[in-house]
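Board notes (copied after class):
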Amino acid sequence: MDYSQIITMEPGKRSGKPCIRGLRVTVGDVLGYLASGMTHGEILNDFPYLTEDDIRACLAFAADRERKSETLVA
């Protein structure tokens, strides 16, 4: 998924953290909701201005960031 039009980073907004479409909802917020057990439907219900594509973009962004992170060698 091309999340480049969905995930934005602005220095003055949420300390430059990756946000959804310039809103004050961060990728980390959405990932935290998913990790706590919320379903996509529950997130969309609580935040009606978000879309299913927004949630998928957060997951794609996190997956890309994970692929690009350095591997620790013991």
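Comment from the instructor: The chain has a mean pLDDT of 94. The first helix runs from residue 27 to 35.
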